[in-house]
Amino acid sequence: MPESTAGFPLKTGATLLSDLENLTITSHSLIEDFLYTPKVTMIAADPGVGKSLIATQIALSLSSATALFGIFAIPTPARVYYLQLEGDYEEFIERMRLMREVVPLDPAYLCWDTTPVLNVLNPVHEDIVVKRIKSWGRPDLIIFDPIYRTVRGGLSKDEPASAFVQFSSRLKATFHCAQLLLHHTHRPSRERDAKEEDDPFYGSQWLKAHVDVSYLLKAENPDRSRASLINKKARGANVLRYISLEYHPETMTCSMRFNPGEGDALTRILTYVNFCKQSGKVTDFYEVAQVCSISHAHLRRQIKLPALIEKVDFANDPPNKTLWKPK
Q1: Is residue 51 within 8 Å of residue 217, measured between CB atoms?
Q2: Any residues with CB less than 8 A from the CB of 319 and at least 6 apart, and which?
Q3: Distance from CA of residue 252 to its chain's centroid?
Q4: Bridge-partner residues for 284, per DSSP?
Q5: Is the pLDDT reported for residue 79 higher than 60?
Q6: Residue 179: its H or E element
Q7: d(Cα 232, Cα 208) in Å, to the nearest integer?
Q8: Do the beta carbons of residue 150 and residue 120 sit within 8 Å?
Q9: Phi, psi for residue 219 in degrees, rounded to 5
Q10: What are the backbone angles phi and psi of residue 284, rounded to the nearest 5°?
């Protein structure tokens, strides 16, 4: 059997039946409600909105198991390989010096790579990157910043986009890790100038299909001190649909803003539950309804959903008041 298919035997008969009965599903959260392995996650935004800032904060938070944006729990430290393909390394170092004032980092869990040798249309370049990663060890997360610098010819064309997808799939098979792809949205045409698009994705549809989870990062005000991560795709991952962030220039970090009027009902509830978890707060049915601006009848329907049941222990103490204890 060729080496490229040796680790992928056919699944049929007794083998398939055994997998149906016994196969352990290995997907798990690196960052609860946000980043999963071995999922491929994309953050797309216009230039200058803050993709690299957020990716750097994700890397630091994972290395030290510090709650991302002050809200999203990280169960254990994770190893992050950051492939920086744009910007100056010194600028990233200065950024991390400021960030670590509020987000601790463990350098043993971080690997920064600034290799200029990468064009995924050339298999030799792929081999070089894989060997460089292996020389450090197995990562839990690989960050591409940004993906357009990994290929010649533009990701709007099928051939280079397919080459990147193949490379990403190879990394998944080799390391079984999560991937975070930073990507630019397209430049608006004259026809689009007058009306903002709901999902300004740029690139071949092969790239869009490959991604498991995608977010659109949008500035919420002119000085870009507030931004939102809007979920556009969530294949096999339980993520919030809307995340509102506030930028702190003195530390170059972001924190999550809780606004009870933002997002759908389940998003607002889960956001508030995460807030209570990080602050060690026990809440109750009536407080959640008030804070999240949800009727009692609607909230009673929401608490039956698996996404909420796995996050909260419900306790009737006293009997006429249901306490919510975030897990």
Answers
A1: yes
A2: none
A3: 19
A4: 323
A5: yes
A6: strand 178-184
A7: 11
A8: yes
A9: -70, 140
A10: -150, 170
The reply to whether the predicted model has a pTM over 0.70 is: yes
For residue range 198-218, what is the model confidence (pLDDT) as tens digits?
A: 667 777 888 989 999 999 999
CA 266 – CA 280 distance, rounded (Å): 21
125-157 CB burial, b ≥16 within 10 A, e <16? bbeebeebbeeeeebbbbbbbbbbbbbeeebee
Q: What is the mean pLDDT of residues 129-149?
A: 96
| Most confident by average pLDDT, 22-31, 155-164, 265-274 | 155-164
Residues 6 or more apart from 110 whose CB is under 8 A from it? Answer: 59, 60, 63, 79, 80, 82
Region at 203 (left for phi over 0; alpha for psi -120 to 50; beta for the rest): left
One-letter amino acid of 300: R
Which among 181, 185, 183 has a CA at the least distance from the CA of 144? Answer: 181
Distances in Å between the Cα of 100 and the Cα atoms of 63, 68, 80, 87, 93 are: 11, 13, 16, 20, 11
**pLDDT tier at 25, thresholds 50, 70, 90:** low
Give the span between the Cα atoms of 182 and 144, in whole angstroms. 6
As a whole number of angstroms, the distance between CA 27 and CA 39 comes to 8
Contact yes or no for 213/239 (Cβ under 8 A): yes
**Six-digit token string for 139:** 């990562």
Is the separation of the CB atoms in 251 and 94 below 8 Å?
no
